[in-house]
């Protein structure tokens, strides 16, 4: 499985990185803002825009017990109940068609992460071209089987997953008929740090699962994403917002339009720079070879005189003999008059 095709866009290491703008809850419960995010993502160069399809009731229970409250004091959502968080962050289902339609008008692929079976049925009614499984649902085998039965490409984030858990998810998807799978290396902390990103895992995942591998990136900035392309990532997913100052559940670790545009440019450059194993001058370097050093006669020399350190030098440009012959040429007698600035060649000795 060397490549995956989503809506005529081929994805794999032989193609430019497929860059996904994740809207998540950065619409701040405004459809107008959501559509502005779509337009800004397209302008910034995103290949695709992703949203999330759930409601608070399909995600959790409306309970204030300790298990249902975020206790991690480093989390941007600390002390919030899960139900309240999902109420704040969810994208109303009645918005989906408008968001997807605007994406298509702007030439972007639009899809979503379903979080339960009802979401899959709803997204099927909208004819999405592919599905994304979020990291926290990577072990939800019933959900994965449901999505796989659509026979559409599936992108699976693997945050927190062991290799065995990833294998279980991939196996389940294949058993249900899914033939196009992309796995994303992901660190499920918000924000994530570069030292916890471990992107050396990307080529290992590629060898292990024989499918395109990408990065779902929650770090600040674009450095980790750029480096991941050098490690073989063919998909980059990054949260996107109009402005972090406007707030929003994911704004803290989201890129603004100018930053996202830079991410698109730099990941593309990283992919272009990978090239192939190559030694010797490239075609573009042919003209530069003349600026190498070579052996030149540095003073006027008469026929029969000897070449010495005083009349022979290794200098630029490179039209003379290679510098490695300098010691060989010292002490040799020239067979004709030679003018200063003449490149030394064997027929002059």
Automatic annotation (TrEMBL):
Signal peptide location: none
SUPFAM superfamilies found in the cross-reference section: AFP III-like domain, Aldolase
Domain AFP-like: 294-349
GO BP annotations, alphabetical order: carbohydrate biosynthetic process
A Pfam family the protein falls into: SAF
SMART domains on file: SAF
Gene Ontology molecular function: N-acylneuraminate-9-phosphate synthase activity
NCBIfam families: PseI
PANTHER family hit by this protein: N-ACETYLNEURAMINATE SYNTHASE, PSEUDAMINIC ACID SYNTHASE
Record's protein name: N-acetylneuraminate synthase
Organism of this sequence: Gracilibacillus orientalis
Phylogenetic classification of the source organism: Bacteria, Bacillati, Bacillota, Bacilli, Bacillales
């Amino acid at each position: 499985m060397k490549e995956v095709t989503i809506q005529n866009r081929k994805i794999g290491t032989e193609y430019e990185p497929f860059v996904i703008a994740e809207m998540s809850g950065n619409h701040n419960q405004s459809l107008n803002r959501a559509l502005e995010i779509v337009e800004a993502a397209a302008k910034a160069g995103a290949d695709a825009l992703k949203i999330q399809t759930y409601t608070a009731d399909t995600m959790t229970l409306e309970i204030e017990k300790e298990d249902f409250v975020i206790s991690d004091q480093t989390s941007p959502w600390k002390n919030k109940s899960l139900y309240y968080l999902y109420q704040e962050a969810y994208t109303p289902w009645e918005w989906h068609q408008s968001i997807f339609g605007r994406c298509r008008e702007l030439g972007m692929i639009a899809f979503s992460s379903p979080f339960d079976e009802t979401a899959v049925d709803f997204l099927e009614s909208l004819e999405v071209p592919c599905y994304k499984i979020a990291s926290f649902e990577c072990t939800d085998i019933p959900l994965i089987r449901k999505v796989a039965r659509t026979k559409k490409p599936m992108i699976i984030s693997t945050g927190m997953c062991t290799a065995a858990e990833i294998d279980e998810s991939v196996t389940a998807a294949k058993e249900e008929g899914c033939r196009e799978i992309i796995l994303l290396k992901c660190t499920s902390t918000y924000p994530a740090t570069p030292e916890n990103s471990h992107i050396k895992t990307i080529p290992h995942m590629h060898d292990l699962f024989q499918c395109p591998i990408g990065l779902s990136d929650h770090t600040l900035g674009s450095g980790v994403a750029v480096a991941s392309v050098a490690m073989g990532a063919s998909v980059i997913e990054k949260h996107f917002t109009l402005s972090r100052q406007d707030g929003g559940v994911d704004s803290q670790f989201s890129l603004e339009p100018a930053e996202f545009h830079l991410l698109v440019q730099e990941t593309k450059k990283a992919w272009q720079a990978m090239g192939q194993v190559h030694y010797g001058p490239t075609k573009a370097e042919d003209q530069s070879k003349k600026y190498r050093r070579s052996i030149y006669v540095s003073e006027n020399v008469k026929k029969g005189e000897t070449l010495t350190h005083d009349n022979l030098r290794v200098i630029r440009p490179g039209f003379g003999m290679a510098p490695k012959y300098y010691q060989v040429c010292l002490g040799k007698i020239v067979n004709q008059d030679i003018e200063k600035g003449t490149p030394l060649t064997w027929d002059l000795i």
